[in-house]
């Protein structure tokens, strides 16, 4: 069996405040295999954003171990973390986070700049990715000229351009209407099934989470459920019934 | 990668054109002011240097002493204490290049219908060497003219203009104090001296002619002053000392008694003038540099604002793989581009206004490649220096904090 994409053991995270350290994540242990489609759910304050940031190497854990794609993240310096974010992870954010001044092809090609790819190759790859998310005709548009759903597609194209092992999507449909949300989730599902990209999705909407195959539910900084989505869905129904 | 970064920096600057322009304006004015002030300072310096060069180099002037008759004290050079023999003796001293004894006076010159009063120098051919004075036409008189006290003359440009107009004076005969003199040559133009005298308003005749025929002297063979040229600037103190000793001995001046002559170092005076001009030039440059500094602070100010405004962008870039040094380079490049483009425009402005100053006020200006190169280097340094802190601040952000920034 292939090496897990994510292997987390006894991870915890504390924030220093004036009143002393406040634990946000406690004893988290999770393993994600290649090709999985995982949803992380939990109420506000459950620590899911912090968890996501640690998964994305944007923040570092206070203790425990996190091995991403075979590398122990805890031992890496900021430059190596940047390299990892560039090569292994693709981010999709709730607020799209595109550069407003740059046109779509430049936005999509941005991660390639930091890998040292030439201008011509950047354009070719960016065009390929835009075509893949169905925006082949919009190379020169700017983010404010297209709809929210299209912006999120551009963000996905940007996440894909470096052929990452893992896509981290933080509330990717939070700013979108239901119909557009479905389209975006269909795109994620396609990427997962056809291209075998591992996807970790954070959301608080059950019907968005339902697209994933596995569910991790957090509460008060602990994992309270980790298992197949189907079972969780019935649990959820029971809870609401 | 740097090319991509340059393109991005360009784009970022284009996003806020007015602000970029105003920031740049600080650099433009700073560099322009430095170039203009250096040009004006250099111009003044060159004028002074030209005057100094026209005087001759490594020069002493030895004046005969003063006399007192019936309570009336005459100025330096009035007493007939220096002689041609003194001059010959000084010439034998080590490190003395040339000695030019001079018997000056004022005389009325007449040529045809024109007449002109001017300073007439009776001197030897070495006077031309000592003053580094070339002839524009004709040839100089020689030692044989000195020996036989011939009536020949070399004319300065101003004299030629006033007496001869467009006519060629060489070979013509003019009258000095009613005696006929043949014009052997015309001196090259020298322009103003340091004190503003017209150096071309002069006539040179053999010293013996001046002594015996033109002005007459109380005692045969006396001269009012002589110019002495040392072989090098380093030899000047030794030459001065040797001359003093020699003349005291020749004039039989007792221990403790005052000299009946005085020795002046003209080079020292010239150096002071040159130093003054240089200090002026430096001061103008320094004042102008202040505006360059202010321009630099303007860049830093705007870059700090820009870093804060673009915190979220920095977060995005870091999330997709930008390292600290990539962010640093990006902001540094923006600062450098602003300062270098500002510098280019500033050089244009500075050179343009220097030429305008020259055209409209006639002030001498010299724009040296050196000053442009310096302005450029300073502008780049200002960009790096004042861009560094904001860029460093951007690069040091934590990705998570930058991303969360609203």
Helix content of chain B: 55-70%
Report the C-alpha radius of gyration of chain B, rounded: 33 Å
Strand order of the largest sheet of chain B: 5-6-11-8-10-9
How helical, in percent, are the residues of chain A? Answer: 25-40%
| Low-pLDDT segments, ≥5 res of chain A | none
The chain-level structural class of chain A is alpha/beta
Estimated radius of gyration of chain A: 18 Å
Q: What does this entry look like structurally?
A:
The complex is a heterodimer of chains A (241) and B (406). Chain A is α/β, with parallel strands linked by helices. Chain A contains 8 helices and 10 strands. In chain A, α3 crosses α4. In chain A, the strands form 2 sheets. In chain A, strands 6-7-8-3-9-10 form a 6-stranded mixed sheet, sandwiched between helices. A 4-stranded antiparallel sheet of chain A has the order 2-1-4-5, with helices on one face. In chain A, 37% of the residues lie in helices and 27% in strands. With 406 residues, chain B is an alpha+beta fold. Helix content of chain B is 56%, strand content 19%. Chain B contains 13 helices and 14 strands. Chain B has helices at 2-15, 17-55, 84-91, 126-130, 143-148, 157-164, 207-214, 236-250, 266-309, 311-319, 324-361, 369-395, 399-404; strands at 59-64, 68-69, 72-73, 82-83, 96-111, 114-123, 135-138, 152-155, 173-176, 179-187, 202-206, 222-223, 225-230, 261-265. A 6-stranded mixed β-barrel of chain B has the order 5-6-11-8-10-9. In chain B, β2 (68-69) and β3 form a beta hairpin. In chain B, α2 runs antiparallel to α12 and α9 (266-309) packs across α11 (324-361). The longest helix of chain B is centred in the last third of the chain and has 44 residues, at 266-309. Chain B is elongated, with a radius of gyration of 33 Å. The relative contact order of chain B is 0.19. Chains A and B meet through α2 and α3 of A and α1, α10, α11 and α13 of B.
